[in-house]
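User: Predict the structure for this protein chain, please.
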Amino acid sequence: MKLKAIILKNHPDYNEKWLQDQIAGDPSILGLGNLTLRAKEKVQASGGRLDLLLEDSDADTPKRYECELQLGATDESHIIRTIEYWDLERKRYPQYDHTAVLVAEDVTSRFLNVVHLFNGHIPLIVLKMVAYEVNGEIALTFTKILDEVQLGIPDEDENVEPTNRAYWEKRSSKPMLALADELFSLVKNAEPLAEMNYNKYYIGIMRNKIAANFCWFKPKKAFVYMIFKATPDDSLIQQMDDSGLDVVKKAKWNELHIKFAQSPTAVQKDLLRKAIEHSRKAYGV
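Assistant: Here is the predicted structure, written as structure tokens:
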């Protein structure tokens, strides 16, 4: 059967509201995971309305997607709106990771040139939606045109907004901040000049008053991520996994992410010391 692609922008029976209802009824059709609908037409402080607020509660860190829909070709106003709503939501709910999503029928090359300037600084996903008419019904497909580039650790020469311990006690929790302290003590043993450097999105490492982020921490409400700038060899990663550590290798960024909900055991601490030493040397400290 030959599929016939149609444009919904000027269709008499199918409009943006219809598309919104289809995604709200089954957010998984976007291909971004097992998402659930949190809100539709959510009123923003700016006076606008966010088309869809979706959430992935199965992720290690609860994650929300601020999703805007556009029939027809992409334009500047929609990308501005998408980023604005993403920014408002992430500031209001900092306990979640947030990603901006724009769904459009026609993603122009000029538009992609513009959004590539943002990606890497703003976690942004662009999906191209194509509608097909099949036996009088409409089938939808979504293709990822621009994938999210995760916000990693900023470069040392970037202006990172400083914070303090009180900020992190509110953003995470006192028990998890105490756990971060315990993990940092392992770093301190390897590098006696290391100090904790409190920033808005992470707790980094400072040495002689200069950022030296060979590893860093992201405390949440119920757990702490310890992130290594350099990935150790697979044998050490396997030993960590065998010891019960929750380890994820991020090959794309050459990072190792370890999630802690409680203090590491003696065996795990020995393995962490090896990972810290590897990352420190790779970093050049």
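Helices lie at 16-25, 76-92, 109-118, 165-171, 174-190, 234-243, 266-283.
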